[in-house]
Amino acid sequence: MTDNQPTPDRIMRLINGYWATGVLAAAATHSLFTHLENGVDTAAGLAARAEISERGAQTLLDGLVSVGLVELHEGRYRNLPDASTYLVEDTPVSLARFAKLKLRHMGALTGLADVVRAGGPVTDPVVEVANNPHWEEIVKAIAPQSVPAATVAVELLGLADAGEISILDVGGGSGIYSGTWLEANPAARATQIDWEPINAIARRLLDERGVGDRFTCVDGDFHTTGFGTAEHDVAVYSHIAHQEGPEANMEVFTRLRQALKPGGTLVVCDYVVDDDRSGPAFPLIFASEMLLKSKQGSTWRQADYREWLLKAGFENVAFYSAPPGTLVIAR
After folding, report:
1. In CA terms, which of 62, 93, 157, 317 is 20 to 30 Å from 266?
2. Who's near 133: CB < 8 A, 6+ residues apart?
């Protein structure tokens, strides 16, 4: 083959992409990224520290080099910057828990062809229910994804100097937005609406951050629980719109507009795609998970959010990058 002819290498990597998920998740399970960050740099050393076989350690290292998370230099291994930032345990942005969680989700993909034919789940989705016993793990695993957006929003909204404001977090999960914003503004107070088991997790996490005394929870389904009228300065609706259909999002945005005081601000964060659906890459492929797991969800375009929010009564809508998501600020 000449240089300008295609080769099967990229296609083979995509066909076997589940190997990358498996290697990453296994490495996270055995804390390999953390051990590498702490200076363990050989297969034998990692095997001893992680209490795994040396053959297993070497296989994981080979795989991590292959996917570009670890590099080998003069016989020594070390994390590359992405792994150092996002896969070392016990940091605010660590995705190590999430990597382990996704390993168990891989089996569901075997049904994607049938789901594509049907246009939605072929069995009743059971993840989004109040009594899911896995909330403790799931809520903690997905929280770090919102840290960049919550931090960017502090600057965009000037929250640190906003004084005695009231924050409403609808479907707030771990309370990551409330926790971040209450730390930035010691005069602010926040209310979260979510199911009782999830709110219990959020209360514990915000108590650990030292801001629990300014954090209130309302137990219930946000589809049917009232938001109040003209009570809040800022509202947040993060990573929920992708699991809802257009009519449901419009309805929630309208209620959120009514819950805000005059001049109030709504913060939406989600995986938003370009209007022509040409990118970004992650939101585009995430739409397949919504097809697999939700009856009406998808990754929606900027144009969709703008239309819904303007119809809901907001006058100005702006978009800001906050990888892996996009912040939508509506006033």
Report:
1. 93
2. none
Q: Tell me the domain boundaries of the chain.
A: 9-91, 135-330
Q: What is the pLDDT of residues 89-122, one digit of tens each?
A: 999 999 999 999 888 888 888 888 999 999 988 8
CATH of region 135-330: 3.40.50.150
pLDDT digit string, tens, across residues 57-95: 999 999 999 999 999 999 999 999 999 999 999 999 999
